[in-house]
Design a protein that fits this description.
By secondary structure, this protein is an alpha+beta fold. The chain has 13 helices and 7 strands. The radius of gyration is 63 Å and the shape is rod-shaped.
Length: 550
């Protein structure tokens, strides 16, 4: 038997469904890994983009703070009080840097991908712009001619203190802006680290699960497809080696199992065909041996019959002459005491001599084997005439013979045959059936049609036949006649006659004491008989052989 591999996964699914399952799982695994990878790449892209923007923003903010430091750095208050005109240029540069910083924020907003935006930076930039504008107004007032006099010194001091407050706010806001940018950078880096960890948590488990699923799918596909294919290949190879007992067992519930079932069905038919061929070869071999034996018997009979007939005729003639002379002398003189015994012995010699002559005549007829003229023969009338003749035989006493037809068409059944030869066959079978039965036995002859051929079936309730008798029933000189008077040539000659007619003869029995059955099939048309060659000319094309029949 072939190896059996069972898989409970997806049992009963078709191969296309299993393939769809495998493809679906593979796509899901690939999707998870791809999603984790894309998320990591997107996080990396956002981080790089945000850091780059913040670096640009930080550089612009540092330039702005550098300009502010020249405006509000050490000594700025002294210059504000003594020479405010020296602060005009640093103020202009600071405003320029602030404007550049604001423009930089606008440009970064167009490419910014993070959700935080630059709200705080714009608020600080707005405050710085407001403070610079206020400082510029204070410088303008301080540089006015009317504040240059001593009378206005008290008002001048108030503007200087207000300008100092503005400068302090500028210093504080610039520091806050720088700290905010650094804090934003740190926040972005931390977010990137968290996104990286999340991506790892997606990619690593997905990859591990994917590897496990791929291993499981490979194992499942081996059980679904590769192992059954290998078993089929091994089975075909073993069949090629001559092992016809190979059977495959595939419990996958898909096309592979159907293929294995079809393969097993094919092997069953092939094995039955092979067994049938073996039986036919054995039967043909037996028939060939039988044909050769019959040919040898025919050649032997042709020579022996002529040699035996003359001595038998002399023996019979001498016995008859002795009996005649013995009777003549017995009529003229007293009868001796043993005269009756002599007469009985002489009669027995004559009977046995004529019996031997009968056998030699059958041998000569068997050796000639010539075909007689054939015509359309009414089988019912022929069988009935044989039964009428057999009723007067001593062997038929106390026994009943019946002729039956399977249907109305069989009543007028005809066959293309030689009436004399078929009558001889029917008589042989009738006499054999009668001799095999005890008193009260019934011999039934049925006429019918089978596969386009005329069928005559002989069924008796006699002693039956065993397997050895069935195997050798048509062999020359083989007899199991209960009376001991058989020659063993009747069925052999009958078999040859049926073969020459292109027909078939079968013998069957359910066993000893169960009766016997003989079936004759004859062609109904001349064309059917012409298509059936002489079996002796082509060894192997003979009757189907003895078969058991209930």
């Amino acid at each position: 038997m072939s190896r059996t591999r069972r898989s409970s996964v997806a049992r009963g699914w078709r191969i296309q469904h299993k393939l769809l399952l495998g493809v679906g799982l593979t796509v899901c695994i690939f999707g998870l890994v791809l999603a984790g990878t894309l998320r990591g790449l997107w996080s990396y892209y956002q981080t790089v983009n945000g850091v780059r923007a913040k670096l640009v923003e930080l550089r612009s903010a540092e330039q702005m703070r550098s300009a502010l430091s020249r405006l509000i750095g050490p000594g700025s208050m002294m210059r504000l009080a003594e020479a405010p005109d020296q602060l005009i240029e640093p103020l202009r540069q600071a405003k320029t840097r602030l404007r550049e910083y604001s423009q930089q924020l606008d440009e970064l907003d167009e490419t910014r991908t993070d959700p935080y935006g630059a709200i705080f930076e714009r608020e600080v930039a707005g405050a710085l712009d407001k403070d610079l504008t206020e400082l510029e107004s204070s410088l303008g007032i301080l540089l006015a001619p009317r504040l240059q006099t001593t009378a206005e010194s008290s008002g001048r001091d108030g503007f200087i203190r207000a300008a100092q407050i503005v400068c302090e706010r500028l210093d504080r806001d610039s520091r806050d802006l720088r700290d905010k940018i650094h804090e934003d950078l740190d926040r972005r880096i931390n977010d990137s680290r968290r996104n990286y960890q999340v991506s790892l948590w997606i990619i690593v488990p997905s990859s591990a699960v994917g590897l496990l699923l791929m291993a499981g799918l490979m194992r499942a596909f081996y059980g679904w497809i590769f192992y059954p294919i290998r078993d089929l290949r091994d089975g075909v190879s073993r069949i090629g080696e001559g092992n016809l007992d190979v059977r495959l067992t595939v419990a996958s519930g898909d096309e592979m199992e159907e293929l294995a079932c079809a393969f097993n069905a094919m092997m069953n038919r092939l094995q039955n065909l092979y067994s049938s061929l073996e039986k036919q070869v054995a039967e043909r071999s037996r028939q060939l041996v039988r044909s050769e034996r019959l040919a040898s018997v025919g050649y032997l009979a042709a020579g022996v019959a002529h040699e035996i007939n003359n001595p038998l005729a002399s023996i019979a003639f001498c016995a008859e002459a002795l009996e005649s002379r013995f009777r003549q002398k017995s009529s003229r003189s007293p009868i001796p005491e043993d005269a009756e015994i002599f007469g009985r012995y002489l009669t027995m010699i004559q009977e046995e001599a004529f019996r031997c002559k009968n056998i030699t005549e059958k041998l000569l007829a068997f050796s000639r084997g010539g075909e007689k003229a054939r015509e359309r023969t009414d089988l019912a009338r022929l069988v009935q005439s044989v039964l009428d003749s057999a009723q007067h035989l001593p062997v038929s006493r106390g026994k009943r013979m019946e002729l039956a037809c399977d249907n109305s068409a069989a009543a007028g059944l005809t066959a293309w045959s030689s009436p004399e030869e078929i009558k001889q066959v029917v008589l042989n079978l009738v006499v054999n059936g009668l001799e095999s039965m005890d008193d009260g036995g019934v011999l039934t002859i049925r006429l019918g049609v089978e596969n386009g051929m005329a069928r005559i079936a002989f069924e008796d309730t006699g002693c039956g036949m065993d397997a050895t008798t069935l195997e050798n029933i048509f062999e020359p000189f083989f007899t199991r006649n209960r009376t001991g008077s058989g020659t063993g040539l009747g069925l052999t000659i009958s078999h040859r006659i049926i073969q020459q007619h292109g027909g078939e003869i079968e013998a069957g029995s359910a066993g000893q004491g169960m009766g016997s059955r003989f079936i004759i099939r004859l062609p109904r048309q001349a064309a059917d008989a012409a298509r059936s060659p002489d079996p002796q000319s082509i060894p192997g094309q003979t009757f189907k052989g003895p078969r058991l029949a209930a």
